[in-house]
Design goal:
By secondary structure, the protein is α+β, with helices and mostly antiparallel strands. It folds into 5 domains: 306 residues, Alpha-Beta Barrel (TIM Barrel); 168 residues, Glycoside hydrolase family 3 C-terminal domain (Rossmann fold); 118 residues, Trefoil (Acidic Fibroblast Growth Factor, subunit A); 110 residues, Immunoglobulins (Immunoglobulin-like); 120 residues, Sandwich (Jelly Rolls). It is 19% helix and 28% strand. A 6-stranded mixed sheet has the order 10-27-26-25-11-12, with helices on both faces. Helix 4 packs antiparallel against helix 11, helix 5 packs parallel to helix 6 and helix 8 packs across helix 9. It is globular, with a radius of gyration of 30 Å.
Length: 967
């Protein structure tokens, strides 16, 4: 069916408004309390009273108190990614990727609201590390599932990321931008999706990728007044460090509200001659550029503000900054603080909250509900839901069966309901539950001395040493395999994990942890059958590989490979055999496998292998062979290549690390008390071979994410099953949207996530295969039918036109697709849009080189340090395509180009027609300009460049091209 319709304006995201609060001022002329006018008055008065030195002191993360103005100390940066973090026990909600997997903005907003309450709950005591400016949410797009920080983001899709981040941030603010509960900021701006050399790599963002993919993820919460600023990323974008990427012409234009923008930790120091980026010579130059770029607060040097104060003061003395620049940043800081009620004696409308809100009964219930809604049923051949009344014996096995792990940005668990406990409690006394972690119990015997490695007892453990002749309990360790050869050792003597401290190894940690994870080993088998233990904790910080060795007194310390002690690894208990025995005797086996967030992927460490660890995979296969009624629960933070499991295991369930209520939430889903309604927010690929380099950011050219990937996926974006079934009616176009009826055709109540996609059939450029335009989570009773209307606007069909530097809606037929996932489309219709026809390129006017249509052998680079993007040739014969150029009948007779070439010697720019090796229309020689930022204008005569055709510019290695024209 074809139907022409007029598309309405975009749907606004509503937030409740409460005009409360107080601001100082004369009663006769004071603006209404809790309004923008009142905030502005407070800010102006304070700014006028602050001395220059006081203003400069406020630019650092740790802002000092100014008693004469009754200004308390203030700190930016409380971590609140999925709960209040680093400040003691607090409600731990599912990781961010789990929150997004609910596809439930209303629920996510409730979580943000609860977290905001808990942040506020500490305001009476204001502990070190606490503040009302919270560093959340993370909106970096999950375009590569190998990213170490995948757990922190929401989705590979910018629209879904924008909806989720707006909901979470809106909860954190309390919903009224004039009276903030907390002041969240989104991070990390921009294009930060790799950890490898993250402060040195540059993310190439051609204009379409920037405008259509990256910016919308950040813009959503900012433009909805749900977020109060951004944190810039460590990486570079198009050759320029994000720390000095101009925010004034981008982020600050997305709202008329005042924003507080901050650097990432220690990032200013990276910019200097002694830092990793070497972009500026001195810290004074760097800090001046940071403020000029639209940032307000320096997160650097821990609590020590002196380097920042000194550098900014020097920048003023050198004329790199003016006091007006300082005032601009301070005005932004004061505005946010005023809206937080920081200058009100009672703390504003949220000043009554205290510590009693932390881990409250209501928040516990919300944590359980959220963890259950985040669960995704990947596969089900009828094994689920489990029938509690019919089960006599259940085996719950696997390395994650009876533990809960936290991540770097997690809060401290106030209690822990593990999968084993959740299932056991749900079954009650009517069934027997057998368990095994499925890991080997070993002893390490020095092959040369015959002495066994011994651990300490008690919570504090002790330094490990070789001082036993036999393998008693203190000589036994449980060996956990995490993939990529990495293992951890847990001492049986006290249940603590072994790690390095002060040069020796101790069994004193509850789980692997820390910025530098010190509890990791890589056993290496030797020719004689012994093993040496390579130390893998923060191994990149050691020049050469280091190993475990025993000193003469038996203490275990670090040494070279030549000094490494050789051990006979004695297996005292076969973990797989134990788990298989439990599974074989059970009616149903539940295998809980997955990741350890500090090991498999984390900040500073990307994944290389997307599969389960080898030992975990072997466990799953063995249990499945022993019991055909096997359910596998995968508990991790990212897509996993579960190809064998999908083919052979009856039921597969995925959850992220879901916090304190993980076990009860899993039990709710496994036993059918909650019908699973989670959906994947990323494509799950079959192999790492399906992915380009993690450093390739051009989703269009390299066909990343569901929008462009053409291969066969394991699970598509949006996938998730239910215990009931849903029938879709035929989608119908309505003014401003699409309506479709959904019927629950099963016997259980459940929720369907109705997803709306579009596909543009014809275009001047490569378009997405599908593009998410809207979704709605709808709860239906058995037999119930409901009509769901999903907004669809004309603006949503636009793409960035590089020929004219603006958004365009093309004249085309658009497929309107409604379904249960991007790979499960249940209904479709067509929409004829009478949009524009993009005219042929006009290369007679100056054309930015970055506005190419295709390319090879080039990188996007910084045209100048403050702003601008050029194209740099990385190899000889690099080329740029400018498709469908109208050169007119009389033709173009001259090439004019602005170029730079830092390296010695001459290079060339060739104009070729039809192909990179097509007919040569002209060549211009470019001499060295001596600097990558020194551009010169060059010209050359052209011959035969006429009519309408594709134009290629072929560049010599080392040449930079800013813009050009053909006239």
């Amino acid at each position: 069916m074809k139907r022409r319709t007029v598309l309405a304006a975009p749907l606004a995201v509503p937030f409740a408004s409460a005009l409360v609060g107080a601001a100082a001022g004369p009663a006769t002329a004071a603006p209404a309390a809790g309004t923008r006018a009142a905030t502005g008055k407070v800010v102006r008065e304070l700014l006028a009273k602050l001395t220059l030195d006081e203003k400069i002191s406020l630019l650092h993360q740790w802002q000092p108190a100014i008693p004469r103005l009754r200004m308390k100390a203030f700190r930016t940066g409380t971590e609140a990614l999925h709960g209040l973090a680093w400040l003691g026990p607090a409600t731990v909600f599912p990781q961010a990727i789990g929150l997004a997997s609910t596809w439930d903005p209303d629920l996510i907003r409730k979580v943000g609201d609860a977290v905001g309450d808990e942040v506020r709950g500490l305001q009476q005591e204001r502990p070190a590390g606490w503040g009302l400016n919270v560093w959340a949410p993370v909106v970096n797009l999950l375009r590569d599932p190998r990213w170490g920080r995948n757990e922190e983001g929401y989705s590979e899709d910018p629209y879904l990321t924008g909806v989720v981040s707006t909901a979470y941030a809106g909860g954190l603010t309390g919903g009224d931008p004039d009276n903030l509960k907390t002041a969240p900021l989104v991070k990390h701006y921009l294009a930060n999706n790799n950890e490898v050399r993250r402060d040195q790599t540059s993310s190439d963002l051609r204009p379409r990728v920037l405008k259509e993919f990256e910016e919308p993820a950040y813009r959503a919460a900012i433009s909805a007044d749900a977020a109060c600023g951004v944190m810039t990323a460590y990486n570079l974008v198009n050759g320029r460090p994000c720390t000095v990427t101009d925010l004034n012409d981008s982020v600050r234009t997305w709202t008329d509200r005042t924003l507080l923008n901050v650097t990432d930790a220690w990032a200013p120091n990276n910019l200097t001659a002694t830092g990793s980026q070497k972009y500026y010579g001195t810290l004074a130059e760097a800090d001046a550029a940071i403020l000029k770029a639209g940032l307000d607060s320096f997160t650097t040097d821990g609590e020590n503000s002196e380097p920042t104060i000194t550098a900014v003061t020097e920048a003023l003395a050198q004329g790199l900054l003016t006091e007006r620049d300082i005032d601009t940043a301070v005005r932004h800081i004061l505005d946010i603080r005023a809206r937080l009620g920081d200058f009100d004696e009672d703390g504003g409308p949220y000043g009554h909250l205290d510590k009693s809100v932390i881990d409250s009964p209501a928040h516990r219930r919300l944590a359980r509900r959220t963890a259950a809604e985040a669960v995704v049923l990947l596969k089900n051949d009828g094994a689920l839901p489990l029938d509690a009344g019919a089960l006599r014996k259940v085996a719950v096995v696997g390395p994650l069966a009876d533990t809960l792990y936290t991540d770097w940005y997690s809060g401290e668990l106030p209690y822990a309901i593990t999968p084993l406990k959740g299932i056991t409690d749900r079954l009650g006394a009517g069934a027997e539950v057998a368990t095994s972690e499925g890991v080997d119990r070993i002893a390490l015997k020095n092959a040369a001395t015959g002495r066994y490695v011994t651990a300490g007892t008690g919570d504090a453990g002790a330094a490990l040493a070789e001082d036993a002749a036999a393998a008693g309990e203190t000589e036994q360790f449980d060996l956990f395999g995490w993939g990529e050869g990495v293992v951890t050792l847990r001492a049986v003597a006290n249940g603590k994990v072994v790690g390095l401290r002060d040069g020796q190894f101790y069994n004193d940690q509850d789980q692997p942890n820390g910025w530098f994870v010190s509890q990791l080993f890589r056993p290496e088998e030797q020719d004689d059958g012994t093993v040496v233990l390579r130390y893998a904790g923060y191994e990149d910080w050691f020049g050469d590989a280091v190993y475990v060795r025993a000193r003469e007194d038996g203490a275990l310390v670090l040494g070279t490979v030549a000094e490494a002690s050789r051990y006979t690894l004695e297996t005292l208990r076969d973990g797989v055999e134990e788990a298989v025995a439990a599974a074989r005797a059970a009616d149903t086996a539940v295998v809980v496998v997955g990741s350890m967030p500090f090991i498999n992927a984390r900040e500073t460490d990307d994944r290389e292998d997307m599969g389960l660890g080898a030992s975990q995979s072997a466990l799953v296969r063995a249990v499945r062979a022993a019991n055909p009624k096997t359910v596998v629960v995968v508990e991790n933070s990212y897509p996993t290549t579960l190809t064998w499991e999908q083919e052979h295991v009856p039921a597969l369930v995925w959850t992220t690390h879901a916090g304190q209520e993980t076990g009860r939430a899993l039990a709710d889903v496994l036993f059918g008390d909650v019908n699973p309604a989670g959906r994947l927010t990323q494509t799950w690929y079959r192999s790492t071979d399906d992915l380009p380099s993690i450093l390739e950011y051009d989703n269009i050219k390299y066909e990343r994410t569901y929008q462009y990937f053409t291969g066969d996926v394991l699970y598509p974006f949006g996938h998730g099953l239910s215990y009931t079934t849903f029938r879709y009616g035929r989608p119908r176009l309505r003014r401003g949207g699409v309506a479709v009826s959904i019927t629950n055709t099963g016997r259980r109540a459940g929720a369907e996530v109705v997803q709306l996609y579009t596909r543009q059939r014809s275009s001047r450029v490569k378009q997405p295969l599908k593009k998410l335009q809207g979704f709605r989570k709808v709860w239906l009773k058995p037999g119930e039918t409901r009509t769901v209307t999903l907004p669809l606007t004309r603006r949503a069909l636009a793409h960035w036109d590089v020929t004219r530097d603006r958004w365009v809606v093309e004249r085309s037929t658009y497929d309107v697709l409604v379904g249960a996932s991007s790979g499960d489309i249940r209904g479709r219709t067509e929409l004829d849009v009478h949009g524009e026809t993009v005219p042929p390129r006009n290369l007679r006017r100056p054309t930015r080189a970055e506005n190419f249509d295709d390319y090879a052998g080039v990188r996007l680079v910084d045209e100048a340090k403050p702003r601008g993007t050029a194209v740099g040739a990385e190899s000889e014969g690099a080329w740029l395509l400018f498709a469908d150029a109208e050169l007119l009948r009389r033709g173009a007779r001259r090439l004019t180009a602005r170029v730079a070439k830092e390296s010695p010697g001459a290079g060339t720019v060739e104009v070729r027609l039809g192909a990179p090796d097509g007919r040569l229309a002209g060549t211009v020689q470019v001499e060295s300009t001596g600097s990558r930022y020194a551009y010169t204008e060059v010209t050359a005569a052209l011959k035969g460049a006429w009519r309408r055709q594709d134009v290629y510019l072929v560049l010599s290695e080392g040449l930079r091209l800013a813009d050009f024209s053909l006239r």
